[in-house]
Amino acid sequence: MTYVTFPTGKSLDFTAIGRLCIDLNANEINRPMEETMTFTKYVGGSPANITIGMSRFGLKTAFIGKIADDQMGRFIADYLQKNHIDTTNVVTDHTGAVTGLAFTEIKSPTECSILMYRDNAADLRLTAEEVQEDIIAQAKVLLISGTALAQSPSREAVFQALQYAKKHGAVIVFDLDYRPYTWVSPEETAAYYNLAAEKCDIILGTREEFDMMERFEANPEHSDNVTASKWFDYSAKIVIIKHGKDGSIAYTKDGEGHRAQSFPAKVVKTFGAGDSYAAGFLYGVMQGWTLEKSMEFGSAAACIVISSHSCSDAMPSAEAVHDYIERCNRGEITAS
Amino acid sequence: MTYVTFPTGKSLDFTAIGRLCIDLNANEINRPMEETMTFTKYVGGSPANITIGMSRFGLKTAFIGKIADDQMGRFIADYLQKNHIDTTNVVTDHTGAVTGLAFTEIKSPTECSILMYRDNAADLRLTAEEVQEDIIAQAKVLLISGTALAQSPSREAVFQALQYAKKHGAVIVFDLDYRPYTWVSPEETAAYYNLAAEKCDIILGTREEFDMMERFEANPEHSDNVTASKWFDYSAKIVIIKHGKDGSIAYTKDGEGHRAQSFPAKVVKTFGAGDSYAAGFLYGVMQGWTLEKSMEFGSAAACIVISSHSCSDAMPSAEAVHDYIERCNRGEITAS
Amino acid sequence: MTYVTFPTGKSLDFTAIGRLCIDLNANEINRPMEETMTFTKYVGGSPANITIGMSRFGLKTAFIGKIADDQMGRFIADYLQKNHIDTTNVVTDHTGAVTGLAFTEIKSPTECSILMYRDNAADLRLTAEEVQEDIIAQAKVLLISGTALAQSPSREAVFQALQYAKKHGAVIVFDLDYRPYTWVSPEETAAYYNLAAEKCDIILGTREEFDMMERFEANPEHSDNVTASKWFDYSAKIVIIKHGKDGSIAYTKDGEGHRAQSFPAKVVKTFGAGDSYAAGFLYGVMQGWTLEKSMEFGSAAACIVISSHSCSDAMPSAEAVHDYIERCNRGEITAS
Amino acid sequence: MTYVTFPTGKSLDFTAIGRLCIDLNANEINRPMEETMTFTKYVGGSPANITIGMSRFGLKTAFIGKIADDQMGRFIADYLQKNHIDTTNVVTDHTGAVTGLAFTEIKSPTECSILMYRDNAADLRLTAEEVQEDIIAQAKVLLISGTALAQSPSREAVFQALQYAKKHGAVIVFDLDYRPYTWVSPEETAAYYNLAAEKCDIILGTREEFDMMERFEANPEHSDNVTASKWFDYSAKIVIIKHGKDGSIAYTKDGEGHRAQSFPAKVVKTFGAGDSYAAGFLYGVMQGWTLEKSMEFGSAAACIVISSHSCSDAMPSAEAVHDYIERCNRGEITAS
């Protein structure tokens, strides 16, 4: 059954708006960051990672965002271009903003944390006027990410992008990606997440992220059905609620909850799992696959990324994902 | 024909959320403010004035807002209570915010200006958590005012109030009341005005206010029909666009534009005209009158206020408005 | 004995830098402000009041400050000019700052309070570059006021003015005038008060103000001698410590503490007492009078002001002060 | 001749207050940072580097500063302790501030630049109350650094430290270390640099830094003599003005200008030259050496640091510096 119909006659498959930053990944791992002496630089930021993933799968993609006028910003733009992502709407800041940073700490494959630098981040300086309507007009899908809602003027830029996407019929995907540090208060967060989610066709988030959005609502048992129903009353067609190691469930307007198989992996770190899952899942849905097959593809893509050192650079090709699934099915891959 | 249906079985006729401030009106008028030596103090703020007007008409009203913890704040609360307005949800600030001020300058009946003090204003400190759901649940009408959208956390409080009003079936009225000084940029203003307007049943504003909201849209001829149609695609049933001395037009979903008779007045100043018009019009609509009769009642109420020294304190009773209309019809009142 | 020698050959007797604001004095007094309905507008701000006082005594004066680009700012400039105060260095703000306000509440002659509006005040926007060296070069005396140290860039403007005054040999007077509301913390306040006081020849303040400056020092018994001695180690020649109704003491470098006679008054309110005292005292010292006679003149000037409705407008002429002293001496004036 | 006398009977030789941060030095050098993929982490910040240098020379040292409550902050505290620096007065921030970062770019030995992260830096959150008087009371020398004056409350903490140093007779050294990015305006910078410099015994800076401080003064020919004389009128005994590759001159109150020999070096990068020079020079002066010999020692220490990858970690022992000088004198070291 088809839950979402994508527009045809568009020159771009996918565009995303929001955070572009630098990951500085610990080279010496399995120890506290205090004892890590060297770091390797990668492009990061959830919507950037997803876009890189989509491009690696062979889709035509573009990014809408803002970079600092410095070496880190230029590195990001170069990397996107090398990955065949259209950067026409990647604007350079001229206010002295800096590139957001994420230092990763990998104490063990399951104890990972991030030290964030988000003060005066360039990506949050994107304005509504800088969002190019024609990029969104050409795209089948617009993905928005919750971190871009954290501050003005980026917040207004996202609402403007939503307005353009509605006008031109793009399918809108909301990756909740809630990061408390850039927000003033949980009340403010809930307000803008809800206003944005009302306009979205596909919403992906963890149970905790949906709980945050229900701060002023009655869902005392944290019921997925109550959560999903609410959004089906607005624009949503698919609501994916992630329950950590208990797996993800894709709810659809017909009341169904779809689950998929998971795969073993030799886990290095957990970072990037969500982004690669989102990319894989959306790719599958855009190919017209069933939700189950799309979720399976997302899970396998995530396994590949969490077995590697980076998030963005490790994004696999579609062939690599298919191959991973086959090898798992043949029992060639076992968990670490 | 009935364009808006009001819920029944509610204990409150009307509630408003937003600005509560102090007007300091020049006692010596028809001169520049530099030469005004004494000022008289009144309660002010567009939603406060409208609520006072509704209460004077005999409706049961409540206000949702925030006052400074000082003499000005206490004066406001006292005045509302003396006017039979429920102040259960008028919260007192404890962060050291001050009461917004508006000094009026009346150089001549048609040359009026305002000197505003809006820095650190208490009314903009209202939070989403402070908005009481049960007040809105009991009310037939919720009126929001654009100035309350200008800053966090008041902005989120308004969106929360809209959420409660939708949930409980209150008719939502949006008085655009755009005041540039508290806003960061026109782009930010347009973003939040549009997000709020999508949820409203009745929208009142000047042509210039609607133009501001259409900053990112195509309405090059500033067509009222284009403007009104857009909002009918969302929740609106009535859109009133004011064209200054050319009069107001009430657009309805059936494509009609309704106009009403205007009245002569001995004008002292123009302040308060919009607020008394809004109160009179809404009162009429709530009585089940035609739009034309409601607009006429609003116009007559406005004539009474602009013939007086204050905005809030001059709000007339329904009898006084009816009497004014009759006297006009008998030719007893002529323009100044 | 001469404690301070004033430079000769200067075209200006006195200049002050700092706060220029508007007092809005309750017309209906002896009640809480909630019940006051009308207010009268006066120029206010401690250094402005002192300068007006000096000008009324017949001295040649100038003011260094910043006014809002609005009706209140223009009223202030006009009033200073009408009082023969040179406003060459009264700069107009162009950033949208407002005029500071002080609403007075007079519950009884001894229960007076002030409701201040100091957010985004124009006087605190004065920059170091705007301070004109030649005004200070021409002046015998520069008076600084503590409120101007509360924020950048006004704080730096004061330090620049002190630098010019040192360079050109002006006698520097520091009126502590500590008002907590514009300061971030007591630690910050103490830091800048002390840095400024090190450079001053005459320091006037209450015991409480000097206590605030000694936050990081050892003066557990709040000894005036400990306080005064500290400043004599820097530049001070006279330190006046005010003990409220117990009177003021002028300490001098020779270890003496000078006291003066006080006078009865029909008190309306206590506002303005300190400013008129400062003006009267400094006038006396500049005339070469003894400290005791100068303090007496200051006390009498204060009596006149506290018997009136305003602070600035009530500043007396020298003749009026002499006359008041004589009438007191003849027993014609008794306390209220 | 002895220009500065150090107090005796103190348990600490040296303490410094101010910036503590992390340097992230490019591992792949001689290229733009865009092409650098890995970075190595070091403790950084001018006063931290100088203190590490003094400790390596065998002096008893302490640091007064503030670190972020994160892995970077803990790494800094650990590193100081391992270098035998007393961290009793290294306070941990609890407001969510981050550790300042400096990414270095080494395009060639002479084309070096820094990409700074100074927003919300923990070191600038040190308060006056947190400065421990007894640390300063025990120290022969207090070194302050200009960057700590850039913002409140760190600025007030420095002035409080100066107050304690004056009270307890410590020799005060001011390392100008002017970094424009954390300052609001050049006028603000000049104001606080001058207020601090008035209280210092030894001042070190580049000609450009002294020019910045003379923004409001008349020194059109940028004369070193005019500059030095000004500070001798306050507390200064030695003023070192650095003229880049033309060498440094140490001015003394007797009107003399002292110069010293320089040494060849195999330069990797120029970072850290000033800090190691300052450490070496101060060490020499504290040993009672002539200014010339002290400057020579500073120059040799600088040569060692600029031949290495880091600033802090490369700080040499006194033996290593003596050895370097001897090898230079024997002609064993030549310039790169």
UniProtKB/TrEMBL annotation, chains A, B, C, D:
InterPro entries, A to Z: Carboh/pur_kinase_PfkB_CS (IPR002173), DKG_kinase_firmi (IPR022841), Myo_inos_IolC (IPR030830), Myo_inos_IolC-like_sf (IPR023314), PfkB_Carbo_kinase (IPR050306), PfkB_dom (IPR011611), Ribokinase-like (IPR029056)
Entries under SUPFAM superfamilies matching the protein: Ribokinase-like (SSF53613)
The record's comment on protein family reads: Belongs to the carbohydrate kinase PfkB family.
List the source organism.
Paenibacillus baimaensis
Q: Which GO terms describe its molecular function?
A: 5-dehydro-2-deoxygluconokinase activity
Q: Where is the Carbohydrate kinase PfkB domain?
A: 16-317
Write out the entry's keywords from A to Z.
Answer: ATP-binding, Kinase, Nucleotide-binding, Transferase
Q: In which pathway does it act?
A: Polyol metabolism; myo-inositol degradation into acetyl-CoA; acetyl-CoA from myo-inositol: step 5/7
One Pfam family cited in the UniProt record for this chain = PfkB
Which Gene3D superfamilies does the record cross-reference, listed alphabetically? 3.40.1190.20, putative 5-dehydro-2- deoxygluconokinase
The record ties this protein, via NCBIfam families, to: myo_inos_iolC_N (TIGR04382)
HAMAP family the UniProt entry points to: IolC
| Protein name listed in UniProt | 5-dehydro-2-deoxygluconokinase
Presence of the UniProt keyword Nucleotide-binding in the record? yes
Q: Which reaction does it catalyse?
A: 5-dehydro-2-deoxy-D-gluconate + ATP = 6-phospho-5-dehydro-2-deoxy-D-gluconate + ADP + H(+)
Q: What class of enzyme is it?
A: transferase
**What PROSITE patterns does UniProt report for this protein, alphabetically?**
PFKB_KINASES_2
The EC number(s) attached to this protein equal: 2.7.1.92
Q: What is the role of the protein in this entry? A: Catalyzes the phosphorylation of 5-dehydro-2-deoxy-D-gluconate (2-deoxy-5-keto-D-gluconate or DKG) to 6-phospho-5-dehydro-2-deoxy-D-gluconate (DKGP).
